[in-house]
Amino acid sequence: MLQKTGPKTLVEKIWEAHQVASEEGKPDLLYIDLHLVHEVTSPQAFEGLRLAGRKVRRPDLTYATMDHNVPTDNPFVVNDPIAAKQIAVLEENCKEFAIDLADLNSSAQGIVHVIGPELGLTQPGKTIVCGDSHTSTHGAFGALAFGIGTSEVEHVLATQCLWQSKPKTMQVNIVGERPHSVSAKDIVLGVIAANGIGFGTGHVIEFTGDVIRSMTMEERMTVCNMSIEAGARAGLVAPDETTFAYLEGRRFVPSGDAFEFAKEKWRTLRTDEGATYDKEIVFDVTAMKEQVTWGTNPGMGTDVDGRVPYPEEMESESARRATASAIAYMGLEPGMRIQDIEIQHVFIGSCTNARIEDLRMAASIVRGRTVKPGVRALVVPGSKQVKLQAEAEGLDEVFKSAGFEWREPGCSMCLGMNPDIVPEGERCASTSNRNFEGRQGRGARTHLVSPAMAAAAAIAGRFVSAKAMLEESIVS
Amino acid sequence: MEPLRRHRGKVAVLDRLNVDTDQIIPKQFLKRVERSGFGQFLFYDWRFHADGTPNPQFEWGNGSADGASILLTGENFGCGSSREHAAWALSDFGFRVILAPSFADIFFNNCFKNGVLPIALPKETVDRLFAQVKAAGDGGQDSGYALTVDLEQQTIYNDNGLEVSFDVDPFRRKCLLEGLDDIGLTMQWEDRIAEFEKKYAPRERYELFSNCYLNFE
Ligand code: SF4
Q: Does B2 touch chain A (CB under 8 A)?
């Protein structure tokens, strides 16, 4: 087995612990500890198994849910025949191959990247895959988690392994004094805006530094979720007491002595003193402000009190062209103030920002205020658990009485595969992760923000600082 | 995957350049939950009118491709979108071999993954084959021009003395000869996988899913 000697990074440790085979000049055969499955990218994989007369090797390491195209108003009324079929087919496949499924009736159902951690399926040191690019979310627990294609889904189902070439490693060290108003979403948007959307290509990013250490698990998930938007293959954070405290007592986490034993092992999951990364980046948050994207990729963003850039300011010809076409698509003017951008839709949801802390944060802004007339605002909890918890805390009432719609869990307006879409030419403040052209609907204009900023935008009808709103200096 | 050693079959001709995967399988057919059954949509927008009736103007409109299993076509076949559905559609339609002067990369790979052998031949050879098929007269279901593709010998020949050799990556050749797809190949590592599972098994058997691999020393 080809293994490194001397000090190792966290990624190298997890990698080497999962090598089933490795030969010089070839990809390694990597063992997969957890395979998450959803309705959109799995049907052909199951069919392939059936045609070849193969079985799922480890149904016990496989867990399925439905999220991408479930309707969130009434999930039991699926009008799109293809969505309905994909949901039904997943049910049949899980039954045939004996895979645990959190279906629409299950209290565990939700967005695949929200429920994995919530159920304790996601654990430090695991290799985790799913036919979905935002699998990187699970890296927050010190797992090596990445998205795969449908052929690979079939491969993992059949063999519980994948051929993978060893990724390069990158450290993104987040340092400085974090301003109270700056959320994890602002930080990760800031990192991408500062370094460009491709800066992580070919690498697995390890996020380090005091700012990361003092983050909650929810915040770390938001950061790791968006590492894919930096082009990275995955993103992760070394586990610590915060991680263990989050995991303890969850459904699939060992308990008692076994938990203590696991904890001892998990504590060894950090990058050794003296280990080196292929690339290192330092990002200081001290002077950061709340972020809003103005363009059509997650790196096209700026401070809430900033402006839409002038294409001429860009360094290269291709950047000038990209900026100009993004501004045109977004229906903005170069140089206009971010705070003058009016929105018609607000979406608080997605695997980036639909966990309980996100909803609490948004609710703290919304409480006692009302949604600006003419704005359609949606809260879509990331999972059934999140929804129940929020309702137990009365957050649903806070949102509803302010004029928000309170929905059932699912991906919803993050990608508009279900009926929740933004109409052509209209503008949405969204807590999701992608602002690509057409992502939330044909011709839809997406601005990525934190839950607090999305809530503030719903109240003001335009982008305003959530911090300023909390300090009541803004009259909507 | 079905092994491919020596294959004899009828040749269908598609004398066009740069046939992209959007033409091979138009995007309105991607939303299926199966991998099979795509053959009926192969070249759909060419084979059929907008109302779904067959287009007799298309070069296969006279049935010249019916029952064919070898496709003879022009340069840069399979360019465009990476959709694996293109290979699925060709295979499901019945094609096992595709002959062309050149192929697009991703499509070329996807063919091997799905038991289809793409062979890049010199342009002159392809032109010669085009001429021979035409001379043979390509009408009707049962008639037509046949070739034998021998992967073991890496030659293509017919009954009239034509014989050309071709190159193929040795590893991929082996996979096709033995009928091994990616998964089949990995399954040859079964012993290693089983050994790994045993060695890395949990110290104790906790509940479901707690068997994370705790070997980090
Ligand atoms: S919420 Fe959006 S990004 Fe996350 S899994 Fe669903 S569609 Fe993908």
A: no
pLDDT tens-digit readout, A356-378: 999 999 999 999 999 999 999 99
Q: How far is the CA of A446 from the centre of ligand 1 (A)?
A: 15
φ and ψ at residue A345, rounded to 5 degrees: -135, 150
In a domain, A14, yes or no: yes
Going from the Cα of A350 to the center of ligand 1, the distance in angstroms, rounded, reads 6
Number of compact structural domains in chain A: 2
**Rounded-to-integer distance, Cα A19 and Cα A160, Å:** 12
Residues of B in contact with A268 (CB under 8 A): 216-217
Which residue does chain A place closest to B113, by CA atoms?
A151
Residue A459: CATH number of its domain: 3.30.499.10
B103: three-class secondary structure by DSSP: strand
Q: Say what the alpha-carbon torsion angle B97, B69, B29, A155 is, to the nearest 10 degrees.
A: -50
Range A201-224 average pLDDT = 97
> Domain limits of chain B?
6-179, 181-217
ipTM attached to this prediction: 0.88
Atom 4 of ligand 1: nearest residue by CA position: A351
Protein fold of B6-179: Aconitase; domain 4 (3.20.19)
Domain range enclosing A28: 10-164
Low-confidence ranges of chain B (pLDDT < 50): 140, 202-217
Q: What is the pTM of this model?
A: 0.86
Q: Cβ separation of A160 and B193 shorter than 8 Å?
A: yes
Q: Which of A189, A159, A187, A342 is nearest to B181 (CA)?
A: A159
